[in-house]
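Ticket #4471: complex job returned nothing on first submit. Input attached below:
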Amino acid sequence: MPAEIPATSLQLRSLVKADQTVELFLEAVEIPAPGPGEVVVRVEAAPVNPSDLGLLLAGADLAAAVWGGSADRPVVTAPLPDAAMRAAAGRVGIPMTAGNEGAGTVVAAGSSAAATALLGTTVAMVGGAMYAQYRCIDASLCLELPAGTQAVDGASWFVNPMTALGMVETMRLENHVALVHTAAASNLGQMLNRLCIEDQIPLVNIVRRHEQEELLRSAGATHVCNSASPGFMAELTAALQDTAATLAFDATGGGRLASQILTCMEAAASAAAASYSPYGSTVHKQVYIYGSLDRGPTELTRNFGLAWGIGGWLLTPFLQKIGPEGIQRLRSRVAAGLTTTFASSYTDRVSLAGALEHEAMTAYARQATGSKYLIIPNP
Amino acid sequence: MPAEIPATSLQLRSLVKADQTVELFLEAVEIPAPGPGEVVVRVEAAPVNPSDLGLLLAGADLAAAVWGGSADRPVVTAPLPDAAMRAAAGRVGIPMTAGNEGAGTVVAAGSSAAATALLGTTVAMVGGAMYAQYRCIDASLCLELPAGTQAVDGASWFVNPMTALGMVETMRLENHVALVHTAAASNLGQMLNRLCIEDQIPLVNIVRRHEQEELLRSAGATHVCNSASPGFMAELTAALQDTAATLAFDATGGGRLASQILTCMEAAASAAAASYSPYGSTVHKQVYIYGSLDRGPTELTRNFGLAWGIGGWLLTPFLQKIGPEGIQRLRSRVAAGLTTTFASSYTDRVSLAGALEHEAMTAYARQATGSKYLIIPNP
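Support reply: We reran it on our side without changes. The output follows.
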């Protein structure tokens, strides 16, 4: 097999330049020989997740982007708004790699037992730089896929499944009994819905469109609230009374949705309270913002007492908190449900060069629910 | 001494009515005989704290208030905005008492040892209904003041001192090393400044006016940032780098100040970080909102990574968390520093009827820094 490995691999790069632009291009880089604990993987599939876009696009304004280069080696240049440029200060001049997760075939292995054992197998990986034809990576960052599993089915094994499991674990760790989830018709949302049904956890799904309501209900969801409904606040409050959900994970970030959720949680808690207090109910209400579909400011109308919290939520620190044993437990569960509970679906598949085409970039940058791209680096 | 006690006591009441108004008035109520564990206290001083105003004014629009009744028995009627009326739903038709804390002389005691021991002493009290001439109260809610301490010096023994101590304790419990405080020239702010100097805790004071800067600097403050300064963000970031403060207590609530603090904390953390991450620094940054000087929405511009939290902070649940021993430790510290570290100052003293006069109400409802009223119910 080592004979199959070429000398170089195409790798997608994102470079913020001092002239306040970001440049996306493919770079041919040498494939290193694996160290003792490492393997070289031919990357066969890598998804474009919302969590990849921050690094990839650097907050650029794609409406003003310019497409150049050749079909094989496209070069996209886009200007950065001032705020994005300030946020990118730490990466100016550094051609960053991208792609948090992917899957492929191990084509070379270092001398360690762990590495050698993976040779020839199909593995899922996490660790960045997955938008590349080959990836040299530590064996511990690979998950051997069950026999017969295709790389395309294992490519999204980490970010969404571990996030869905992380939400449920956080709920238990912080003593809540039910969950609220926004942008609930996303790949992640559908996964969380299946997981909560499996684990019998009451889940309140918040969506923005009628067809998303239908989608979730047909997948067995009990509580689906449409934020575009005129009766949204009353409907959400009723669902929160039913489920006693006091923890929400919000993918939108900007706007008033987090505030509305807290308001309805407080209304549900007050309805159950024995007496009036000017400080509001004593029930702690928590919203974690884990995405930024709406990049505008978060607006909080503080009419929900004083027992509340809002914060950022990120997978990596959560995994650090639960430690290696916790991570192993979650990994095993994902591996067992890769084509069922934790299955992802994609609207389109593109090559590395195809991922830099106008149509694809515009589509995945929009982060529309139900639109998800899979990169096939070795078509 | 029991002979001195009249049959009835004037008590300030706040009544939200179904017609969407709040009515403030004095009611003569019978003074009950104390139960075995209770004492009757002649209230000699009770402060008007910002935390009293929510219950007292019910969010009324004082600009549209009408003053009626007699000089001895004033009646103030003010309309409630819609949102305030919704928030007051639980108290419509119930004439609420007000005043969280106060001090006075124990004039009658129940049969228990704890109650009898207090007879004739000057005590500070917490437990509500302090805007009254007499208060029958459980002996455990009284703190016997050190010999020679006047009631006026003990009246504000609880809310501000315990809040200042609570901020410092929260800082330690949540593993921060320094504090940020807004509205820092308030009575509470000056107290926190003295406490942090005593305990050698770095404190970043945020104020809005030049004379408040002067006040705090002359009281020994090292870091004072003026949010009205054109260089505020840079000045705050520099103070945060100096102090490594990652925890703020915000009394304003509305507007952008909480967001600005998080932005500057992130800038300070990023300056110290070794490498760039699209998710921001790994340093957890926390703001607790404990007041609502600005009743408008809180606006968060999420340019501070994902390791952040904002939440409400209230003294009572904090005290529940530290338990009876923790509370006793803080009480003892307050008692020892009542006229020094934990001293309060007042701009005006008024009778119960005086507390309902136009000038006084307008002044304390404005919650201006440096303007604090003390009610003397038995002039």
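Chain B touches chain A at residues 54-55, 83, 86-87, 90-91, 94, 253-254, 259, 270, 273, 275-279, 282, 289-290, 292, 297-303, 305-314, 316-317 (CB under 8 Å). Closing as resolved unless it happens again.
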